[in-house]
Design goal:
heterodimer, A: Rossmann fold, Hypothetical Protein Tm841, Chain: A,domain 3, 6-stranded mixed sheet, 8 helices, globular, B: mainly alpha, Serine Threonine Protein Phosphatase 5, Tetratricopeptide repeat, 3-stranded antiparallel sheet, about 65% helix, about 5% strand
Chain lengths: ~325, ~210
């Protein structure tokens, strides 16, 4: 294991210190709970609070999307392990301004339980909390079990929509409705070319043989649908686009937001090569790309591979995606 | 009638903590086969943190509450809420009693099962710690129905926990991270079922030591 770290069991603590120093213009760490990151803009105006949280190791997710126009507070867990109920609760308390809090997170057993317990604690304080649970990973369960699917890079688009809606001054119910619509229209799939290592474990969590790829791999190395011979960008893109497109399904005439995210070790150059192939496939299907993102938006430590996410957009979702945002992971100016 | 005194009996909880600490590496190793390999490390971190907050002079129920609260508030992951709920439910039922009898014990165990099923949505046979807790409770209940002594009921609980834990070896995980392995999870013990067995067996032997009767 070749790593630039100190104590392997303290990587999350050490990372957060650096993150706060670097991005002090956007976020700060809560005084009482070192596992709670709060946007400096969270209370600039009265609005619904947006909270998320999850295990660490996915930079820029989750803390990288904390800031203006996106997420107001993030609960930080150990590597690949859910934050505590207390951290979710502290986030909720920190950003509630009387309009309620939308907790937007990914479908994982630990997160589900800790959010549930945090909501009970918040209920005692009369804070209204509602959730949207991302389940965009097509490969993680068949369509008839759609509620069992995991959340992956589609969460970035979910936070963008939820954050923008809250910024517009929408009520909690409106924020939840728009965000649920966003994730219901979002589908993702991943491909893994090489494994990742949790620093405290010191060895890879799983193996991917040289010359092969795991199609449908999850964000923590959860096994994919099948192991295939490593193919060209053209072939990988074709296979991924067709799985995602057929699932929703996306059809001729649809407009989409496309997000290609590296999983940590794939050079951004290769992500652009892959994206071009994705766009060509979409062109030939008559699906037009309204907006697109390529880069390391949601990683899995140093896993080699990419995820492809498509979100079908209507006027409301377009407006939310175009809204101004200032976070470490995503910054854009309003397009007029 | 046999009973365990609630007052100033935190040593039962401290023995449970010690047992998890001793078995931490073993639990991580079991978890490594189908999961992240961090079960023992995380459990140990939480249980040792709770140890600092428990005084010998606490009631048994109070010490269980501190342990449960620590796991929920400071550990997270899946095990924090799961074991936090289990210990909190036991604590809540014991709290009202000066003496914990077998009748109180069976209600506390059933309340834990209800809490876990509600929280995690797990069912019997999903290859989780419920597959230890449920058969253990069932064995306790059956012993009770046969008018056995509290001590013999506790021995039955311990045996039921062991059998339950072993039964997870042949199960395919339906919930949690190992569920993603599907058939590949067969042939391995479930890490949660194993730690639950250690907890129940340590608790029963410690309770047997503390049995009084009149």
């Amino acid at each position: 294991m070749q790593r630039i770290i100190n104590e392997p069991s303290l990587v999350v603590e050490d990372m957060l210190k650096g993150f706060e120093r670097c991005h002090k213009d956007i976020i700060h760490i809560d005084d009482d709970n070192p596992r709670v990151v709060i946007s400096n803009f969270a209370k600039d105006k009265k609005k619904v609070g947006i909270v998320t949280g999850g295990g660490s190791g996915h930079k820029p997710a989750f803390v990288g999307y904390c800031g203006k126009g996106m997420v107001d507070a993030v609960a930080v867990g150990e590597i690949f392990s859910s934050p505590t109920a207390k951290s979710f609760y502290d986030c909720i308390r920190a950003v509630d301004q009387g309009m309620g809090v939308a907790c937007l997170y990914g479908n994982y057993a630990g997160d589900n339980m800790n959010v549930k317990m945090a909501m009970e604690l918040a209920e005692d304080d009369d804070i209204q909390v509602k959730v949207v649970v991302a389940n965009d990973d097509v490969a993680s369960a068949p369509k008839e079990d759609i509620k069992k699917r995991r959340g992956v890079a589609g969460e970035v688009l979910m936070w963008k929509v939820g954050g923008a809606k809250a910024e517009q001054g929408a009520t909690l119910d409106e924020v939840i409705r728009a965000t649920q619509k966003a994730i219901d229209n979002t589908r993702s799939v991943g491909v893994g070319l090489g494994p990742c290592t949790i620093p405290a474990n010191g060895k890879p969590n799983f193996a991917i043989a040289e010359g092969t790829m795991e199609f449908g791999i999850g964000h923590h190395g959860e096994p994919g649908i099948r192991i295939e011979k490593l193919a060209s960008a053209t072939e990988i893109a074709k296979e991924m686009v067709s799985l995602v497109v057929e699932d929703l399904p996306f059809t001729n005439g649809d407009e989409v937001v496309a997000l290609v995210s590296g999983l940590g070790a794939t050079p951004v150059m290769e992500q652009y090569i892959f994206f071009d192939e994705v766009a060509k496939n979409l062109d030939s299907l008559g699906i037009s790309v309204y907006k697109s993102y390529v880069g390391n938006y949601f990683t899995s430590l140093e896993m080699n591979g990419v995820t492809l996410t498509l979100m079908k957009v209507d006027d409301e979702l377009k407006e939310c995606m175009d809204a101004e945002v200032e976070t470490m992971g995503l910054t854009q100016l309003r397009r007029t | 009638m046999e009973y365990v005194v609630n007052e100033k009996n935190a040593k039962i909880t401290l023995q449970i903590i010690e047992a998890i600490h001793t078995n931490a590496a073993y639990l991580s190793e079991i978890d490594g086969a189908t999961g992240d390999g961090d079960h023992g490390v995380n459990m140990d971190k939480g249980f040792m943190m709770a140890k600092e907050r428990i005084q010998l002079s606490m009631n048994f129920s109070e010490s269980l509450k501190v342990l449960g609260r620590t796991l929920v508030m400071d550990i997270g992951g899946s095990m924090g809420p799961i074991y936090g709920t289990m210990f909190s439910r036991l604590s809540r039922r014991f709290k009202k009693e000066e003496r914990i009898t077998k009748e109180v014990m069976v209600e506390a165990l059933n309340s834990s099962i209800d809490g876990l099923m509600e929280l995690a949505g797990a069912k019997i046979g999903d290859k989780t710690l419920l597959d230890t807790l449920y058969p253990a409770t069932d064995a306790f209940t059956q012993a009770m129905n046969q008018q056995k002594s509290f001590k013999d009921c506790l021995i039955a609980l311990s045996k039921g926990a062991e059998d339950g834990k072993e039964s997870t070896k042949d199960m395919v995980a339906k919930i949690g991270r190992a569920a993603r392995l599907g058939e590949r999870s067969r042939g391995f013990l479930d890490a949660g079922a194993t730690s639950c067995c250690i907890i129940l067996q340590t608790m029963t032997s410690a309770m047997i030591e503390e049995l009084d009767s009149e």
